[in-house]
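retry 2 of 3: previous attempt timed out while embedding nicotinamide-adenine-dinucleotide. Reduced batch size to 1 and resubmitted. Inputs unchanged:
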Amino acid sequence: MTPNPWKAALSQLDGAAAKLNLDPGVHDVLRHCKRILTVAVPIRREDGITHVYTGWRVHHNTSRGPCKGGVRYHPDMHLDEVKALAMWMTWKCAIVGIPYGGAKGGVVVDPKDLTRRELEALTRRYAAEILPLIGPERDIPAPDMGTDEQIMAWIMDTYSMNVGYSVPGVVTGKPLAVGGSRGRSAATARGVMYVTGATLKHRGMSVEDTRVAIQGYGKVGGPMVALLEDLGCVVVAVSDVNGGVYNPRGLSARGIAEYRTQAGTVAGFSGGETISNEELLTIDCDVLIPAALESQLTEENAERVRAKVIIEAANGPTTPEADEIFEERGILVVPDILASSGGVTVSYFEWVQDLQAYFWDEDEVNDKLRTIMEQAYVDVLGVAEEKKVRMRTAATVLGVSRVAEAHTTRGLFP
Ligand code: NAD
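retry 2 succeeded.
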């Protein structure tokens, strides 16, 4: 049976609420998504036939500010997944201290099945359908799996055409030409790199000897290979949906990037031996970085994972059952809501720049990102040590406590 991410998200919230002795009323509010919009997205395909896709936009919580969260295009999406991702965004924004609540959206579609014109039509129609929920003061979408900066530009244009003037601050992760931020495209990967550095330091592990395996070679996993190489780590394995490649002496970031540009996949790269995705998760390495889908590390494979540290770049890659096994086995899991928050942090910078119409250079973006990520790591570690809980519980406790404080301070309307 496929693990349900919403159940996992609720069980994490319940665990944090117990540690915090959270008021039952506040706990109940946080167990619910504030609003859920389901939309039908019809487009005319190239063959002239109209096809209707299902999409959603979910707002989990707005106590700390407008909603923020990605848009995912994936054929297996379901509402419970969107709800879980929205809740995780709420905690993530609170952990890094940026003034947003959590949202998520998406469409049940494989974008690779669409032509560019169809993809644009789907995106514009989806944006038009969720228009009542989005806006720079309401909810600011961003890229996620299956979406990219071009799709963000189409959403920005659709919104702008509807209101009658240009509104760059309605989405983040846009191209630079329409108000994007320098440093945004690699921000999630860069944030993971800062967190990896902080974790290795805390664990007394030398960066130079650290062997890393990365599942997923997309917007997050792709730039991470070179960034970790720059940090001094040895990336021994990478994979994507088509399979993976392993070399115990290290893979060349440049070699893989060039091969991926040509072949459209990392599978088949000649710089290492071919492995399956399942093999990547249990490969001999020090740090495992899942950067693809949720529910990848489960009770089926957790016993066989050989990494000492797991840094979650993807959202929700570890099931609660696997989490228990990792804790028993002494494997440190640095949770998604901390490790992958670099993307939303630079999205926040992008929004700030758009609202001010004043843009920063890349060093400024990266420096500010480093400060926020390192502080968030210290804050989560502090809670973990004080409450004697694992990092995921500590991160959730920190996120939930900040959201609960905002909720309580504002009071319950009416
Ligand atoms: P993407 O679509 O750019 O890339 C996804 C990658 O995962 C691709 O390489 C794909 O081939 C691979 N993949 C898909 N199915 C797989 C499978 N079964 N096994 C192995 N690999 C598989 O998506 P992304 O933006 O890189 O997002 C990846 C993860 O990171 C998601 O969980 C997303 O929610 C999370 N995330 C993304 C951002 C962001 O800024 N893009 C920020 C925070 C978290």
